[in-house]
Amino acid sequence: MTAIECGREDEVVEAIAFGRWSVERSPELVAHAAGCAICRDVADVALALHDDREAVMGDAHPPTAGVVWWRATVRARAEAAHTAMQPITVLQGVAGACMAGATAALASAAWRWMDPADRIGDLLSRFAADHGAAGGFTFEHALLAVLGIAICLVLAPVALYFTLTDK
Asked: pLDDT digit string (tens) for 38-47?
């Protein structure tokens, strides 16, 4: 089986690619392509590709070298700042975890210190007896203190999550 090719195909593609495809610039090559079926097909395809390339290049607006350099510099600085902040973020997370642990340990120690049978009721009755009805520490205050500790223990993991996530 013999391959069908023409020796001037490369010349046709090159003339079209470099903008020399016209009767004025290369009359004999255009005349050859008009008579040769292979070169005519090559010229049709190459012209279509060349026209598409010209249309795309006309619509493209690449940034200037200064803008590209500026963007690269800004990106490099942002990456360097992110890299520098990683140890600080880890230390903040560790400090938050330590604070949550210390709070839980203190609450646990205070809970164990109280008499197991009476716990809060006994403590409140002692404060009420010592300070009277108009004393500074009432049942509402104790309830608010316990509620505040519970909220802190619930919100500590949420705060750690937001501290350790990248923004």
From this structure: 999 999 999 9
Question: In this model, does residue 124 exceed pLDDT 70?
Answer: no
Scan for tokens 């490369």, then name that residue: 10
Rounded Cα distance between 3 and 12, Å, is: 19
**What is the Cα–Cα distance from 56 to 112, expressed in whole angstroms?**
77
- pLDDT number for residue 125: 67
The count of residues in the chain is 167
CB atoms within 10 A of CB 39: 23
53 close to 82: Cβ distance less than 8 angstroms:
no
DSSP calls for 67-115 = HHHHHHHHHHHHHHHHHHHHHHHHHHHHHHHHHHHHHHHHHHHHHHHS-
d(CA 16, CA 87): 59
Classify residue 19 as left (phi > 0), alpha (psi -120 to 50) or beta: left
Distance CA 141, CA 123 (A): 12
Residues 116, 121, 125, 131: is their CA dihedral positive or negative?
A: positive
- Residue boundaries of the structural domains of the chain: 9-59, 83-164
